[in-house]
Amino acid sequence: MADSASQSRSRDLDKLLLRSGNLVGPTFEPGTELRDALNEFVRVLVIGAGGLGCELLKDLAFSGFRNLEVIDMDRIEVTNLNRQFLFRLGDVGKPKAEVAAKRVMERVSGVDIKPHFCRIEDKPISFYNDFHIIVLGLDSVEARSYINSVACSFLEYDSDDNPREESIKPMVDGGTEGFKGHARIIMPGVTPCFECTIWLFPPQVKFPLCTLAETPRTAAHCIEYAHLIKWDEAHSGKTFDPDDPEHMQWVYSEAVKRAELFGIPGVTYSLTQGVVKNIIPAIASTNAIISAACALETLKVVSGCSKTLTNYLTYNGVEGLHTKVTEFVRDKDCLVCGPGVLIELETSVTLKKFIDLLEDHPKLLLTRVSVTYRGKNLYMQAPPVLEEMTRSNLDLPLFELVSKTPRDIVHVTGAAGKGDTKQSCSRKLRVVFKGMDVDMAGGA
Amino acid sequence: MAEPKVKYDRQLRIWGEQGQAALEKASICLLNCGSTGSETLKNLVLGGVGSITVVDGSKVEVGDLGNNFMVDESSVGQSKAEFVCAFLQELNDAVKAKFIEEHPVELIETNPSFFSQFTLVIATQLVEDSMVKLDRICREANIILIFARSYGLMGLVRISVKEHTVIESKPDHFLDDLRLNDPWPELQRFVETIDLNTTDAVAHKHTPYIIILVKVAEEWANTHDGKLPSTREEKKHFKDLIKSKMIMRDEENYREAMEASYKVFSPQGIGPNLQKIINDSCTEVDSNSSDFWVMVAALKEFIANEGGGETPLEGSIPDMTSSTELYINLQKTYQAKAEADFRDMEERVKNLLKKISRDPASISKANIKSFCKNARKIAVCRYRLVEDEFNSPAQPELQKYLIDEDHGTLQEANSLKVLPENTAAGLYILLRAADRFAANYNKFPGQFDGEMDEDISRLKTTVVGLLNDLGCNGSTLSEDLIKEMCRYGASELHAVAAFVGGVASQEVIKLITRQFIPMSGTFIFNGIDHKSQLLLL
């Protein structure tokens, strides 16, 4: 029964990409052109080369994508080896992105994976616009939020406030914890963005300081006392480093002393690490499940070869096996994926004044603001060389800097929020100059 | 810390050293190492299972390079089992890995005793006929069996074992065992030493909610003929009563007490799941009974006698606003009662063991203790023989899955009822129809290009015949879904294989560690829109 198809590397994928079907996406055009387009033109960015990232790179490489890039700031640790299957003991200490990319390229020929060993914030915003789709394999809310704000900043709306199709940067996001996980598709402007449903990720509960200081009851209270209070008392000025085993050992022994003092059981070294580093338990199987769902959705979003997930999948294997698809809805007033915050300005307002204004704007509360207009840097906080180059713009009227365009989109990046909760973000602003546009109300 | 302990740190936080030890003792056999099988095993090798045996008689083809990470160009034309096994060994040298170059289907036919040496068998990409035969073999030998299958955008995972019992089911949410509405004498005495009307503001705001709730529940009962609140109105009044005891607005402990008031109202005694277990005929223990059932028999006696309708006390309390001293003393009160209950249980277990002529010390204290702590959460999972499911699926369930009212109404086509699309159930029928098709035509529907139209019409006929045999006379599935199945042409897509393999390996871990609850029924992965489903047939 051997035929030519079985001699092809894309034997299995071809069934899906070359054959027509009725349960497919509206744009699906089966054929070798589609397969070749996936192979040659589609560029996919994977964020994170950890538990999900390793699986994602493999799954995407086998789903017809050959132009992949991966970004991760971490180095390989021994505790990764129970699930991050691209890494070996001898790789410990090396950058995850580089080793992961190399291993997948070694085994799947024809695939090109470009690694980026850096923080996601280190890349210019334009870097992210270079990809057709972004797949997120992250374990932090802050990083998801940042990438989401970047992808949403590319979104443009037409005069009727409908998103422009070609400006939509799709994202596929996965996350796991123990036996549970989620996968979702974010089509900015169409389906809810990460920020629209931020309530799905409730903030981590912290112990009140008075409990730690006065009425400890659990082992975790003793550990946090040693970590948050005792450390600073004993080491004036020295910052606690959770990755320094001596520091961890110190916190552990202080926690043990405190627990003994109060008769509280249960302080162990392992628990100390868990509490201090907020370790989320992680296993290979759940990461495999969630990554596979993300890779499959990436293939479907790009090729249209089947329906897609609308729009949020949860998986729970704790008691039996439960999967659930939920269709969340957009927050109409979302600051991140909406048409942008409207800012009305006098034509005389300087760039400096504009930046100050954003700090006080009740919806934005942005500090350390950098400003770009149509890809051009108007003012950059960093690196120093760019700061110096753009500094002279600060005293010029913004109206001049945008070539006297009466109304347009200006992108800003900076830190949002107050006090401890500040985080990097990107925001889109609809700047309108007063008195310059007769049809001003129309775009508001 | 030793290196393996560090390596497994993130999973030890889930299943502990006991779970890890069980994994390291397990001997696992994989049948067929295509991408579904390879991915399943990969997740288990990373986690550190004891030994693996890869059984596959096929040679690596070029097509395999497009979906299996464990083979590469150098392996084309050579034993797939050998190359997959070598790659898996590279992932974790603590695992004993070996391979057997033989076709699983032949092994099932010619050497059924082969399977008895394993803890668990993972059978991937087997067709119905081989599944049924292997299932009988493993059931006979009491070997845990799990099937995994990827087919186009769909997949199937099914556990088969006569009985799997779980003590540490570790549910996410479970009512704390606090006995607030029925305090035992020591707790009652402890509560009586505290005065809620104290004028000491610091003491007042550091009284743990357990004490507040026991006192308020007692007060309520005294004014309501000994009854607890049951209606919504009464529950609200109960909360108001708690609120009335506050002397300042910022008393976190009273706020916690109001939030936790449902712990007073929830029904006393044992829940329906546990009731079913203690009513099971296996509690009539004899010398062949497992340790689990001996302990359940002891539990049944305990509940009927000294337990007064309750299980042994769990013995732990959640964190709550409190002074350290009161909290620790409260904790000790709960632990002491749990310890006393454990000793009663231990006595009953010993007597039962004597009665069935077994060594009274053959069940360790640690095991009895763990059983007592988890008594309310124990679980028993039983699985039908695959053959029984295939030949006589539970009729009401099958009808319910296939004729899902949410998905539209029945339509007529060529005098056949077209079953509305509950896609997962439809895919289940289609996978079975595909196997029947393969048995008849020696190929899967749509396996080869250029024969699609003929295959679609043949598959349609097969579906109608199969549904007839399953008791759904005169029914068929939608044209779209039948065509979709032909489009898949028995392809094994990597992402689907990784999903299905991930599910299978997660279930294997639950089965081997005897922690958490494995899935029941037959899991159908629906890769079209992810509306997957567990079919209880």
Automatic annotation (TrEMBL), chain A:
The yes or no answer to whether the keyword Signal is present is no
Known pathway: Protein modification; protein neddylation
- Per its UniProt entry, what is the enzyme's top EC class, as one word? ligase
InterPro entries linked to this entry: E2-binding, ThiF/MoeB/HesA, ThiF_NAD_FAD-bd, Ub_act_enz_dom_a_sf, Uba3_N, Ubiquitin-activating_enz, UBQ-activ_enz_E1_Cys_AS
Could you tell me which residue ranges the E2 binding domain spans?
343-434
**A GO cellular-component term linked to this record:** nucleus
Know the name of this protein?
NEDD8-activating enzyme E1 catalytic subunit
As for family, the record states: Belongs to the ubiquitin-activating E1 family. UBA3 subfamily.
Biological processes per GO annotation: protein neddylation
Whether Metal-binding counts among this entry's keywords is no
The annotated active site, in chain numbering, is 210 (glycyl thioester intermediate)
Q: What does this protein do?
A: Catalytic subunit of the dimeric E1 enzyme, which activates NEDD8.
Q: Which reactions appear under catalytic activity for this entry?
A: ATP + [NEDD8 protein] + [E1 NEDD8-activating enzyme]-L-cysteine = AMP + diphosphate + [E1 NEDD8-activating enzyme]-S-[NEDD8 protein]-yl-L-cysteine
Q: Which UniProt keywords apply?
A: ATP-binding, Ligase, Nucleotide-binding, Ubl conjugation pathway
Catalytic activity, EC: 6.2.1.64
What's one GO MF term for it? NEDD8 activating enzyme activity
From TrEMBL, chain B:
Task: Give the location in the cell.
Answer: Nucleus
Keywords, ordered alphabetically: Nucleotide-binding, Nucleus, Ubl conjugation pathway
Q: Does the keyword Transcription apply?
A: no
Q: Which Pfam families match?
A: ThiF
The cellular component terms of Gene Ontology attached to this UniProt record, alphabetical and capped at eight, are: cytoplasm; nucleus
**Chief place where the protein resides:** nucleus
InterPro entries to which the protein is assigned, alphabetical: APP-BP1, ThiF/MoeB/HesA, ThiF_NAD_FAD-bd, Ubiquitin-activating_enz
What sequence ranges are listed for the domain THIF-type NAD/FAD binding fold? 8-515
Q: Which molecular function terms from Gene Ontology are attached?
A: NEDD8 activating enzyme activity; nucleotide binding
GO biological process assignments: protein neddylation
Give TM regions: none
Query: Its pathway?
Result: Protein modification; protein neddylation
Would you say which domain of life the source belongs to?
Eukaryota
Its family?
Answer: Belongs to the ubiquitin-activating E1 family. ULA1 subfamily.
* Function recorded in the entry: Regulatory subunit of the dimeric E1 enzyme. E1 activates RUB1/NEDD8 by first adenylating its C-terminal glycine residue with ATP, thereafter linking this residue to the side chain of the catalytic cysteine, yielding a RUB1-ECR1 thioester and free AMP. E1 finally transfers RUB1 to the catalytic cysteine of RCE1.
Designated name of the protein: NEDD8-activating enzyme E1 regulatory subunit
Q: Which organism is it from?
A: Capsicum annuum
